[in-house]
TrEMBL record:
Keywords: Hydrolase, Membrane, Transmembrane, Transmembrane helix. The chain crosses the membrane at residues 12-32. The keyword Chloroplast does not apply. SUPFAM superfamilies: alpha/beta-Hydrolases. GO terms for molecular function: hydrolase activity. Coiled coil: none annotated. The keyword Ribosomal protein does not apply. This is Alpha/beta hydrolase. The lineage of its organism: Bacteria, Bacillati, Bacillota, Bacilli, Bacillales. It comes from the Bacteria. Residues 66-177 form the AB hydrolase-1 domain.
Length: 322
């Protein structure tokens, strides 16, 4: 028995040593590769000074109304994410894609990721970039919180809201933040595990399963999505945004309701079927507006705009032209 335990301890020590060596190799692999990747990771839009740091905004289109795109939590590169919608609205409206701090091509910040800080930063970025109301805000997923809060804080600037499978403030106010998941995903990136997995066929599509396997993106944007993930995913700003999510939702719940603007709630027909609380909250979400409506988009997962961008664009333009 003594020999068995001696052999077992020795095996555990060898295993621990091997794990340390593999981790050291992985972290070095990620560090060295990231240095090369940063050279290729250049802003596609413009950066502006906002409260001491650079924020990025990508704009295009034409018209008297500006559609402001607000990505969901953890969607690292909003420019890539909303790509399927640009050509469908650019002839009828101007558009602006916001990179919150920690996302896309915006800097990191030391400001806590509470809802009013985020909304203030968005407001300052829009002003600094020369954009002007009226705005139609489009919020995806957890981005619904910043979208609704912006309308609460600056009601004279917002003409309408489209929520793309955006959750209700009441729903998020009851959800415990998934901070541990964010930290684990950050470890996978920084340890080089995620970078190594991208070399396996099918990994990209599996990671992007809710985004229709990125089928609507050209190859160069698929590559940009990979770079963005390996350089920025689950950084401290993004993780803190998740950490603050429940408190942020509770703050929105305490604000004005209903809003005096139309809100269109797009709900993915293929998402959340087993989560009755999510589906019930989606039905109730239009009550946040005096002119609220819900539209079920069948054959779509959480990122509806990667399955049926034409449906999303039609609802946006209905508010633009309304």
């Amino acid at each position: 028995m003594r020999r068995f335990w001696k052999f077992t301890r020795k095996g555990m020590l060898y295993g621990l040593a091997l794990l340390i060596v593999l981790l050291a190799i992985g972290f070095t692999y990620q560090w060295a590769s990231a240095r090369h990747d940063w050279d290729k990771y250049k802003p596609v839009g413009s950066q502006y000074d906002v409260l001491g740091h650079k924020m990025h905004i990508y704009t295009g289109g034409q018209g008297d109304t500006t559609v402001v795109f607000n990505a969901g939590w953890g969607t690292v590169n909003p420019y890539v994410d909303f790509y399927p919608l640009y050509d469908k609205i650019e002839k009828d409206a101007r558009f602006a894609v916001i990179d919150r701090f920690g996302y896309g091509y915006s800097d990191m910040t030391d400001r806590k990721r509470d809802i009013d800080n985020i909304v203030e930063e968005t407001h300052e970025l829009l002003k600094a970039s020369g954009e002007h109301p009226p705005y139609i805000f489009v919020g995806h997923s957890l981005g619904s919180l910043e979208t609704i809060r912006y309308a609460q804080k600056y009601p004279e600037e917002v003409k309408g809201i489209v929520l793309v499978d955006g959750g209700s403030p009441e729903y998020y106010a009851k959800q415990s933040p998934l901070t541990a998941i964010s930290l684990f995903q950050r470890f996978l990136v920084r340890s080089g595990v995620a970078r190594a997995l991208y070399h396996f066929d099918g990994f990209t599509e599996s990671v992007a399963s809710e985004r229709n396997g990125l089928k609507l993106l050209p190859d160069e944007l698929k590559e940009l999505d990979r770079l963005s993930t390996l350089l920025r995913a689950n950084n401290r700003n993004i993780t803190d945004e998740m950490r603050q999510s429940q408190r942020n939702a509770q703050e929105v719940v305490k604000g004005k309701k209903p809003l005096d603007i139309p809100i269109t709630v797009l709900t993915a027909g293929s998402y959340g079927k087993a989560a009755s609380d999510w589906l019930e909250s989606q039905k109730a979400l239009p009550s946040w507006s005096v002119q609220g409506k819900q539209v079920i988009v069948e054959d779509a997962e959480h990122y509806i705009h990667h399955y049926h961008p034409e449906r999303v664009a039609d609802e946006i333009l209905e508010l633009v032209n309304g």
